Amino acid sequence: MDIDLADLDFWRRPLKERHEAFARLRQADLPVFFPEKKVPLLRSGTGFYALVRHADVVEASRNAKVFSSEPAVTNPEPPGWVKHVFGESMVNMDDPRHARLRRIVSRAFSPRMLQGLQADIEKACARIVDDVIAKGPGDFVSQVAARLPIHVICDMMGIPESMRAKVHEHVDASTAYSGVRPSLLQSARLAGKNVVALLALQRMVIQLGHERVAEPGKDLVSALVTANPDGEKLTDKELGSFFALLLVAGNETARNTMAHGIKLLTDHPAQRELLMSDFDGHVNGAIEEMVRHVSPIIQFRRTVTEDFALRGLELKKGDRVVLFYGSANRDEEVFPDADAFDITRDTKPHVGFGGPGPHFCLGANLARQEMRTMFRELLTRLPDIRSVGEPELLVSNFDNSVRSQSFTF
Length: 409
Ligand code: HEM
Prior knowledge:
Helix content: 40-55%
Protein name: Methyl-branched lipid omega-hydroxylase Cyp124
Mean pLDDT: 89
Strand order of the largest sheet: 1-2-8-5-3
Bound molecules: protoporphyrin IX containing FE
Radius of gyration: 21 Å
Largest sheet: 5 strands, mixed
Order of helices and strands: HEEHEHHHEHHHHHHHHHEEEEHHEEEE
Oligomer: single chain
Strand content: 5-15%
CATH architecture: Orthogonal Bundle
CATH class: Mainly Alpha
Distance between the termini: 45 Å
Low-confidence stretches: none
């Protein structure tokens, strides 16, 4: 089979070809093993089994005792500096450490907290559309999609206005690394920039945490550094890691879904017409279908903790499996005519936000709320808004990142 998911060249192929490759992999009787390649700056691992069918991704997500998120969920093995920066991140932990952190931070994502953010999200979306109208057609990513998620995360955390320009600057620098790099030199340069930026972000939020311990406010940082009813709170290092995780997990994902989303709506005028015929009735289905169709996170890894049979595949302790969300979301057994963009389909089982289990995306409802509000503002105030041409994609085996997407209205 001329498909090698461990070869970074595979991720340079056009999206359509990659979807076809995954369709072929899904037909194989058992998950295929891909020996690891040596990647500049990344440790060479032992290789991995690719979980490409929906049922396999769901099973591995659900059974966290056998399919561990430790030592890390990225693939290949991340370099030491990533562990240093993200080491205490909940996404790379198993219970009980994971459960403790999730208990502390999930306060920020309760329905009441999210409801409290709605007025601010609406204001931010209105301002973004005001600016679009003032500036005119251009790049949808920088003018629209990139602006909202980071604004919302800063608001939740209670980052003061005076610090926001610096946060933006550091986030831009820290996301520069998330692609497939052509040379060792370029990788090293970007990794260096990335780690400096992430550490700077962590220092900023830790400093803020100290101020909020002395003088608590109503924001999330205050909540996280003061004890919850069980007496639990975050340490400095945990607070820094959580902020970095939010900025990485909650920023690019929502941004890329919106950027791909405007193109999907443009390419499927009948679906768009249906959405506009009853916005409230269809918007949730449209957002969910965008997340399924785009699958903004391509893959996360698990490490097997004990010998285990997965659909006849004999896994050994220490084996790695990689969960390919985009492939699971196009599994024809669950999603008939999976390539079609259909806002009325039953997307309930999609795994764009991860499979069911302890690591299911903590920010899923926030992301849905942001995207609902943004598309409502865009499509009602600019009824002719549409993408122009093809998006410029970042070559990546981790996220479906859009660098730019022209648009007009
Ligand atoms: C369309 C937008 C988004 C997508 C597609 C997405 C996708 C995912 C996926 C696939 C996971 C599962 C990781 C795993 O199983 O190992 C995850 C976890 C997570 N996401 Fe999201 N995400 C989105 C938006 C957000 C937002 C807006 C936030 C917060 C502001 C967020 C915060 C998190 C956190 C904290 C985790 C780790 C949860 C844990 O380990 O318990 N995400 N996300």
